[in-house]
Write a structure and sequence with these properties.
Rossmann fold, 6-stranded parallel β-sheet, globular, alpha/beta, 6-stranded mixed β-sheet
């Protein structure tokens, strides 16, 4: 008798733009995992009900995307030390009868940056002060980087710096005066637009520039970084590597990054 597939998915709002179902489905097929993956559009006011529904339905794993990464923590049985330190959960896995939260975004960022550069001892600047910025700061600190946080609202940058005991925080326009080896862009500037949060003159030849925005694939920031002689890294690589770690959290297996890249590139997000 054929058993029902395990149910996995992603909760987010709105749900139309996600490439997670394509990536995870490709990974499940390649690894021989009997599971299906669904995108659940969950408005913020329905989050508690959605998590209860996941419990009842026996959902095996949930990816958690915006706007739920912080608020979902209150609805779980346990949150591991990494997610608590970052202050956000992007992965919920059922273990026995418990829903346990963790965060794989930071690992995704580390793996993405390592495509172009070592991290230990590097001088890194993080643009933004939201959930992705928190994961970035955690990742960079864990990897031995010297980190400065810049944000349009300086008070938010300073608050993030205090949370992680960083020495430096400033406004976005301070970038031009800061020596850096790695630039991490976590704001929504450039999403489906030809905008950049920093002037091209602030970009440095030989540095690594990562943009968490992945739509378009080559943002204005990445295009100008390439023109400046920097090494651009698109946001899709963070998504690919964090998805690999999500799957490993549940199955102890890791699909090939190239497999997920192909699924990402071919995903229909219309």
């Amino acid at each position: 008798m054929t058993t029902e597939p395990e149910l996995c998915g992603v909760i987010l709002h709105p749900a139309g733009h996600t490439r997670s179902p394509a990536m995870h489905t490709a990974a499940f097929e390649a690894l021989g995992i009997h599971a299906r993956y669904v995108a659940f559009d969950v408005p913020p006011e329905e989050l508690a009900e959605a998590i209860l529904g996941a419990r009842i339905a026996g959902v095996r794993q949930l990816a958690v995307s915006l706007p739920h990464k912080q608020t979902v923590m209150a609805h779980l049985d346990r949150v591991d030390e990494t997610a608590r330190a970052i202050g956000a959960v992007n992965t919920v896995t059922r273990v026995d009868d418990e829903l346990i939260g963790t965060n794989t975004d930071w690992i995704g960022l580390v793996r993405a940056i390592e495509r172009e550069s070592r991290l230990d001892g590097q001088r890194a600047v993080v643009l933004g002060a939201g959930g992705t910025a928190r994961a970035a700061v955690y990742a960079l600190r864990e990897s031995g980087c010297h980190v400065t946080v810049l944000n349009r609202t300086v008070e938010k940058a300073e608050a993030l710096a205090r949370d992680f005991q960083l020495d430096a925080a400033a406004a976005l326009d301070a970038l031009a005066s800061i020596d850096h080896d790695i630039l991490i862009q976590t704001t929504p500037v450039g999403l489906r637009s030809d905008e950049s949060p920093v002037p091209a003159s602030s970009l440095r030849a030989g540095s690594v520039v990562f943009d968490a925005v992945y739509d378009p694939a080559e943002t204005r920031l990445l295009r100008e970084a390439k023109e400046a002689g920097a090494h651009p890294i698109g946001g899709k690589w963070m998504l690919i590597y964090q998805a690999i770690e999500q799957i490993h959290t549940w199955t102890a297996q890791r699909p090939a990054a190239e497999l997920l890249e192909k699924a990402f590139d071919q995903a229909d997000t219309s």
